Amino acid sequence: MKIVLQKVKCASVGVGGQTVGDIAHGFLLLVGISHDDTESDVDWITKKIITLRLFSETTDTFMEKNIQEVGGSVLVVSQFTLYGDCRKGTRPSFSDAARPEEAEVLYQLFVQKLRDAGLSVATGVFQAHMDVSLVNDGPITLVLDSKKNP
What we know:
alpha/beta, 6-stranded mixed sheet, two-stranded antiparallel ribbon, globular
């Protein structure tokens, strides 16, 4: 499971010209799920996102609070293209990405686990063509990969 995490001042996602999810300060999470991901990948990456200290209360401090401690929100957007392999040819291969019906199960599980942790979660529409808007905060952008967990 791969996630591009961006700390944002605000973010929104739309489908067909209609906003389907938006947040104020928090994280925009672009989520890719591979064909060999399991619930343990979801568990690891959920815990990591919840506990990462990326927020500061004052300008004198640096990254001492996690998203729960600052009352932040999360916007979760599915993005299978995180598993695009561009090493050969001119068109990416997505053979490492999970099939949509498998990916959606883990995607929904991930969203539910974030909600169960008490976070306010907005989402895009799985498998839809989406328009994503954001205002970066920092900018702080991290790439999380459950296959690289210790």
